[in-house]
Design brief:
The structure is a homotetramer of 355-residue chains.
Chain A: E1 2-5, H1 11-23, E2 27-32, E3 37-42, H2 50-54, E4 59-63, E5 83-86, E6 89-91, E7 95-101, H3 108-121, E8 125-127, H4 145-158, E9 162-165, H5 169-178, E10 181-184, H6 192-199, E11 205-208, H7 215-227, E12 233-237, H8 255-262, E13 267-269, H9 271-275, H10 278-290, E14 295-299, H11 317-333, E15 337-338, H12 347-354
Helix pairs in contact in A: 3-4, 3-11, 6-7, 10-11
């Protein structure tokens, strides 16, 4: 941490900064410059409360040199973390993984059909919400536990691992029981109680960027999960808030190479929420892969015109199939590949297992 | 809801929109214009999933005419809701209320001293965090339940009602036991599980605006609380995310008169978090009151230089005393007044009650 | 300037940074820390192109310690600059000045009536656009030079100094001929050719903050004017772009005390454009004064219902009169006063002077 | 335009809205709904000043149904506009065009070498600034007219058409004399005097999106150019302002498919300014092409370490060559191709022409 003094700061003011730093248990190193003095704080363990120094007289600015996160940093661990949802369905390696499925689980028939359709087209994992965070208390809130059971059925029928959202600690434990990856949505990115809870569960977590979250905020939220012992975290760019209302969110694809430089964790893109518009999902999914994403998560519905939620941003099955073909070509243009769907002995066996 | 067709939309496309609206259970009213047709959806009960219509061929745009919130709206209830934390400490009437106290509860001595100081200067309620949402898992996270006990002690010693934050459902029940108002922080503004939980507790709630929340989002989150039966909600503007990093947040004071027009709920301003800088707290607290806020919540610490958190945005006791004097003058300039501190028989009695 | 090295930066990488700094003509001072080395660049004259160092291998981040502006800074000139439009109409002293008038000059009758109305209510200067920057090429673009002549007439009839916008260099010279202050609008805040042009004209300039401009950007644009020799600059906060569309812009009142700390130039608030809504102009004008603004600029129209532009954000004459009364009370609450209208011998004399 | 009344609006209030619309010369069509009445304004020619209606009593909201732009709209002209800078260097067709070159023209040697390098790697046009809009008045402002002469020389030596920025009307005429395309930078996107000036010059214009500009704003600025008669406009996404300072701007790639749906004008991406960081230029250039951009404009410098401006975001020649190869592969993945460099008889001939 560097404390920049005003250019007419007095000797006493500089001394007081030095003394305060020492009282806080760190060492201070004043560095006189041409026009102003800068005081370095040495020994920062990431717990320094800068606001205390910031308001001392004569201080112009406090500059943070150390990054506030540790375990998520590439300086902490240089090699990519590989997060696996099923054999061959791995995020963070050379292959990119496509997660697809409807916004909400609506019925056994709908989710199983969706799973078959997306598997056939080339998806590596199935998405579908059982607990839905809706901005209106009067909107459809998801099927809850029965929805989780339907997701588990779809997995048995297709072999696709399942990603689904949890809204609170109780829900996280339920999701962990039925699914392969616990999604934390954008609205809960700084719900620290929930982050701690999933940090103590031994399941991969898909952590979505909040609408007002900087990349540093996103990494700090991931740090909460790692700090509790769970290192299986996949990050997800899904659009941030901006001033143009022609799109629901502003899909920040530059975040992808930035996160990959700063952190060892994999990062994927969500063009469905990132844009909110079906005909923008396809170009932006392609752009996410071209930008280097380790995967994409896309809303696909067997019958979007009758979806209970977000129908307008869901792809039709044939659109999704064409998209996968394009993503394969783009992956190969940058030396990567789309991961194949996980091996699967067939619904017969699964059905047998169910019986 | 209005569905604006493209100007070369065909008869068939318009018919399909009409049919879809009817399938959803509403009536459609096509209105041909000079260059394009608009289709009105009549009977909107606030549950229409517009995305389904939005993606039909020939649709240029879907426009929401009805507001998505109901019970928080001034159209639902015309008169101001008055939220009372203690006799005479009322938000939403003519008087404005000043909530003051430290960022975190640190010790019995600190919080009782803070309570005395802010009461003496003119505060109507005490703030202080026992559960702290910190962006780093390694920062001080608050004293938890012992902190709540200290707050209750400070109330007994000064008569000031207490406002403190809850981070999850379990915490909300604890806070309700010890304090007079449950604060939901900006990061949890869309934590719907928590909103529902406090909606079922019979205690006033202070709901802070999220960093990326529009005013409509804030009102929708309040709607979650009212929908569960709790109408005692105070809203709070505390700064939103913007592009200039000279301030921690952008304090959006225009939100105050806007909320007051749209909703019957009281709204206060938080200049401490709204700016993040001590020397901006004073002018911006004045500005909040001049803009019509029903109160302000201000960080004051008996000894800011040694605060465990946010010391740099906490006022010194004498600064706070001067601020209250200025707020009185500004209130009176616009025909309002600062509410007096609640009547209090004295620490002796309270101590007696404790014994 | 400080160059923060990655924590595993090699000796060679640090040496290359040092060498590059020296090649650029500055001195380098490496400071090894606990986990990483920081290299200070000494002798920064504000012309260093940091991008050259930023991309050297091993560099994690470049931090700017010196402010990029000079002459506008309070470190350059400690005392407030006082900008005078007429005797007694001074920005930057104890008194605050109210500039008022219609969005556009529409006719002799309209602008003279507006000038009389706002003078009677307590305004110190008259605003009114002759050159209008409209987002549509098909909208009313202002009366041009005849509009300037009407403004000059209104000044002769009322004694109020006149503020009006220029859109290009040619227009700036015309405005300087007829008016007392050249306004540079938000859209031209970084039109450097125009800034240079008004920097060479000996007239006060009212520089509005651009919609995406940080406070530093605003000060840098003012620096362009001062660098050409014109120090008579009044800054103006008029709302920036944000994500909530309930207001046209987000009125950033915290900018006012921040600018006053960083710069010696006066700053005023424009609540009409800052909010875009008539019933928000009054509370936000009050808030601007409470936040410490050196003045406000408010749209007032003798007959807003028939205004040619921005009628919906213009105050009615009686609303403006009440507002001035409130602003007087708020000014006095913070130890300031509203400047009286400039002395004026009367329309008779002026009319005589005209004859 | 639709005027939504409050749900308790009186008969008189509705009548006043109707009368006001008729006074403005349009027809009004009231549409009673379940809870509120909406009044349609019929005959909107794009000149309606909505603010006049917006502030009438009983009006809740005014909704714009017509788009404010005309000639730039795809509803005005359905087929893509093709803008040609040289034979075969066409924007808006199947091929994508790569514009490359240094931030600033520094010397004959530098710009000719840059032109050769980028042509050899596959660029179709040369960029390079002679007039530079710098945020500091003390920074290098470009070589001016001599810089334009050097660009013309580089064209003679390589056959590449030249794109360069103009900052004012005088500069636009000079640029038109020497170059093949006049660039209007982000800071001047709403400099309407300049837009009108280039609208009257018969040269292609590259119009960059402003930092706070919505897509509608960008199209409205293009409308200014078309309204003066110049239809040869290429739009350019170059990043907008957002809250995360890890990148200089937020590169909004979703703008590309959105503009292509709304307008017939070609649009390209500028990943150099869009990100401000060299190692993000390559992935984001790929992403722009994958999102469907009609071209990219990339900063390449023969020796970035010694560039006079923006060295840190300029690619090294070999990086650029690899990028072109990747862009070819991605173009082909979506059924497009990178346009070949324009045919060129050789420097000899050009040199002859010079003599």
């Amino acid at each position: 941490m560097l404390i920049v003094m005003e250019n007419h700061a007095t000797r006493e003011q500089i001394d007081r900064v030095v003394k305060t730093i020492e009282e806080m248990g760190y060492s201070a190193r004043p560095m006189p410059g041409e026009t102003r003095t800068t005081v370095g704080l040495v020994g920062n363990d990431g717990r320094v409360d800068s606001s205390r120094v910031e308001s001392l007289p004569g201080v112009a600015e406090v500059i943070h040199v150390s990054k506030p996160y540790k375990q998520v940093s590439r300086e902490w661990k240089e090699k990519n973390t590989i997060v696996s949802l099923a054999p061959g369905v791995e995020f963070g390696g050379t292959d990119i993984v496509i997660i697809a499925g409807p916004c909400s689980v609506e019925s056994e028939k709908q989710i199983v059909e969706a799973a078959r359709v997306v598997r056939a087209a080339g998806a590596g994992a199935l998405r579908g919400g059982a607990f839905k965070p809706r901005s209106s208390p009067y909107s459809f809130q998801g099927l809850g536990k029965p929805g989780l059971e339907m997701l588990a059925l779809a997995r048995r029928e297709t072999g696709l691992p399942v990603v689904t959202e949890a809204l609170d600690e109780e829900g996280a434990h339920l999701v962990a029981e039925y699914a392969d990856c616990i999604q934390i949505g954008a609205r809960n990115m700084q719900n620290y109680s929930l982050l701690r809870a999933v940090g103590r569960i031994n399941k991969p977590v898909l952590l979505k960027r909040g609408m007002a979250a900087t990349i540093t905020d996103l990494l700090m939220s991931a740090e909460y999960i790692l700090a509790e012992g769970n290192t299986q975290v996949i990050l997800c760019e899904r659009g941030i808030r901006s001033f143009d209302t022609l799109t629901r969110n502003l899909f920040d694809l530059t975040a992808i190479p930035i996160v990959q430089k700063l952190s060892h964790l994999p990062i994927i893109g969500d063009p469905s929420h990132g844009t909110g518009l079906r005909d923008k999902v396809i170009p932006m999914a392609r752009a996410a892969v071209a930008a280097g994403a380790d995967g994409v998560i896309v809303e696909v519905h067997p019958d979007p015109d009758h979806a209970l939620s977000d129908g307008g941003q869901s792809l039709f099955p044939d659109q999704f199939a064409r998209l996968v073909t394009e993503l394969r070509a783009i992956s190969s243009a940058i030396g990567r590949d789309v991961a194949p769907a996980p091996e699967f002995a067939g619904a017969g066996t699964a059905a047998g297992a169910r019986a």
